[in-house]
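Why this split exists: single-chain examples teach little about how molecules sit against one another. For that reason, every record in the complexes split bundles all components of an assembly together and asks for one structure covering all of them. Below is a record exactly as it appears in the raw files.
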Amino acid sequence: MALTAYAIIRLRNLFAVVILSGIFSLLAALLYVLLTAVDVAFTEASVGAGISTLLMLATLSITSEYEKKPAHSAVLPILIVVVTGAALIYGTLDMPLYGAADAPANLHLIPRFIEQSGTEIGIPNIVTSILASYRGYDTLGETVVIFTAAIGVLVLLGRGHNRWRPGMRKSVTPEDREEEV
Amino acid sequence: MNNHSVLRVVSKFMIPYILLFALYVQFHGDFGPGGGFQAGVIFAAAFILYGLIYGIENARKVLPATATRILLALGVILYAGVGFAGIYFGGNYLDYNVLAATATGGQHLGIFLVEFGVGTTVAATMVTIFFVFSGQDF
């Protein structure tokens, strides 16, 4: 994963960068499988490696394939990244070990979900019952976020298509489009 | 991509199975990994594949812009509607226990409908974003 990330930073060919970020997502999905988080791995593989790579490729077909050389030096950004990374790693030192039975996350709500969801919800997949039932409000919020994203894209790019006013499409002439581009 | 006959034949063969797999992930999310979100993305991937191979215009004949815009809203309305149904049957908002005769039956029905709403919105969103990005005028 570190190798892929380094290659993504160094390469100027955006097509290769998009494909490499897809590979990065697939490796992350494998990592989640190793941590036995199958639902998360499934999402990462389908969304991170699949759809977002596709969307990036679609964007590339509109813009150019090569990145411009950066105009100013990279010393300050690298400094900020290193300091933030060091702070994050320092933070993880206090975290309980992976799978530790006495970790706060494993003591508070998780035992209740594991013991009760079978009788309360009656669904074998505990992840689904947490997502859709115990955390129903969260998932509703997430759905609305996705809906909002689509509306935003439509407002910005999906101009001129209106079933009840079909004339609107013709008002966007090729000259207009070139000016906007 | 009209000249790539291998791509055309293979994708024509694959698309039904992609759709079938998406439906499996959607309705089997109670028992195995998966759920509305993943299913929606896979379902959208089938249409995007069709659009890549056969052109956006042809894909839009299968799934017109109006249809995706309506489905987009319908998923959220279904999810929120299940919440209001909980109030109607005498519970709290998004309380599935009251939807059916037994509590677990209500939970099953509620989760099923809610996941279906999520899947619909996600699939419509992904198709919309891709088509709008690559087609510009659709």
